[in-house]
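hey m, so remember when u said the tokens were messed up on ur end? i reran from scratch. heres the input so u can diff it against urs
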Amino acid sequence: MDTTTTTTPAPMTAAPQTAPSSPVKLTEAAVAQVKKVIQDQGFQDYFFAIRVVPAGCSGLGYDLNLVRESKAGDLTWDQDGVKITTDALSNKYLMGTEIDFVSSVTGAGFKFNNPNAKSSCGCGTSFST
């Protein structure tokens, strides 16, 4: 009697992957700001998309958006009720990054503490590795 079984590989899907360890950590202030924008804009169930894109004089910059769905192959995770997504290439540049939201007399915005950035431009909008 032959007890060998043959298995057919499962079809590949383009479902988002859960990040084994989240590459980015948001501070309490950043989580609060993202939740405020989601609430104010009526974007419940959207993802906070964090991407590294070609930009600025140092070569790379950050792109932040609220998106309805993550893209095929994206890494996704949840932090304190905020659904976050990034692509695999950005993940390489973002690993270990902390994002804060700061407010001062001169303005307010997200501040990145990225241990992978070796230098940044004078205006602070781009970085290189």
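this time it looks ok to me. Residues 43 and 108 are 21 Å apart (CA to CA). if urs says something different then somethings off w ur setup not the seq
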